[in-house]
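Hypothesis: this fold can be encoded by more than one sequence.
Test: take the structure tokens below, design a sequence, compare later.
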């Protein structure tokens, strides 16, 4: 669908917003540096990549498909195809949602593909609009900038998950309500999703930093090693969050067991209070004729008084022993997983969806004004 292209000509001029014919011409020239970014890839875009740019159909299938593909590097001799995962900050969900980007890396071109609008890609596009230095350093450095921003935008999510873990730990000790269990399971699912894409990604980025591929220059390898270090740190922090979720789950189950003990204690209190009362009414419910209290005019009121006195004494005794507790507050957990926008690189850059919505709203307002004016 939307295709945005930049081309740094051999003489150093930066061309923007190329047509498909211009993209093909720049690609076939094998000079300068061409960057093509395709968002929300369609079958038509797939045919363009395979037939016009002569990219391998297996890699193109991965671009067109909306299935989740594991992080990987495919070497096609003249170019590489790499799949890298990050966080999908565009959609709101109760759990973390991941997103992937596929990148073709050649000596004179970089072709990126993602099926959702990406703040990371928008951030790099904005930097190139301001200064074309990234394009001048070559395809390996441009690819590094894309992957580095993609990985850096994972850290705000890790920080938010850490905050969730702290909130859950506080609630699970003092207020182990059923919705806390739901929050624990959502945190575990989020941590597992991050682990599923970050763990294999370490090997992918490590291959970039070992000098295994000729299109990754030696001076660029240390920058990829820096991304590898970031991924290792993210994986360690995520594993810590997963461990905290497991500990919170164990604490929750223990708290529920304690709560069941509290229930049994309440039942014991009720039984303890009513046992002496049942003894009293049992005695005076007998049908013997020789019971002096039955003929006493104040006997009925005396028995009620004894019953009331026994109840008050037992209730006071249990309250003084700390067996009664009131005013427990329930936890409310109705918040989707959203990261603060200011922590995401490229968040302030207008993305495709926002522009389309704003354009659509402006057209509707203009149409309404014309209808009102007759």
């Amino acid at each position: 669908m939307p295709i945005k292209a930049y081309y740094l000509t051999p003489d150093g001029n930066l061309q923007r917003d190329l047509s498909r014919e211009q993209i093909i011409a720049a690609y076939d020239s094998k000079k300068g540096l061409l960057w093509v970014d395709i968002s929300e890839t369609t079958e038509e875009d797939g045919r363009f990549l395979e037939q016009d740019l002569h990219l391998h159909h297996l890699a193109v299938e991965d671009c067109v498909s909306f299935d989740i593909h594991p992080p990987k590097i495919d070497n096609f001799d003249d170019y590489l195809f790499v799949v890298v995962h990050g966080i999908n900050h565009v959609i709101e969900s109760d759990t973390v949602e991941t997103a992937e980007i596929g990148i073709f890396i050649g000596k004179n071109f970089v072709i990126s593909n993602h099926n959702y609008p990406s703040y990371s890609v928008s951030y790099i596009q904005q930097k190139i609009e301001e200064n074309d230095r990234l394009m001048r350093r070559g395809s390996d450095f441009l690819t590094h900038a894309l992957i580095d921003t993609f990985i850096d935008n994972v850290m705000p999510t890790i920080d938010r998950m850490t905050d969730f873990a702290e909130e859950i730990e506080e609630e699970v000790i003092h207020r182990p309500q059923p919705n806390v269990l739901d929050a624990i399971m959502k945190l575990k699912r989020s941590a597992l999703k991050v682990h599923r894409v970050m763990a294999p990604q370490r090997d992918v980025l490590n291959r970039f930093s070992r000098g295994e591929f000729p299109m990754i220059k030696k001076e660029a390898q240390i920058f990829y090693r820096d991304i590898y270090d970031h991924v290792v740190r993210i994986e360690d922090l995520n594993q810590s969050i997963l461990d905290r979720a497991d500990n919170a789950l164990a604490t929750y189950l223990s708290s529920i067991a304690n709560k069941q003990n509290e229930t049994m204690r309440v039942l014991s209190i009720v039984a303890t209070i009513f046992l002496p009362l049942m003894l009293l009414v049992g005695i005076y419910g007998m049908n013997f004729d020789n019971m002096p209290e039955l003929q006493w005019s104040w006997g009925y009121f005396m028995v009620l008084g004894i019953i009331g006195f026994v109840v008050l004494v037992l209730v006071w005794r249990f309250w003084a022993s700390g067996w009664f507790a009131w005013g427990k507050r329930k936890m409310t957990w109705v918040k989707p997983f959203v990261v603060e926008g200011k922590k995401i690189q490229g968040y302030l850059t207008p993305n495709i969806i926002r522009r389309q919505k704003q354009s659509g709203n402006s057209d509707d307002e203009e149409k309404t004004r014309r209808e009102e004016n007759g």
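The longest strand covers residues 79-87. The two ends are 37 Å apart (CA to CA).
Hypothesis status: open.
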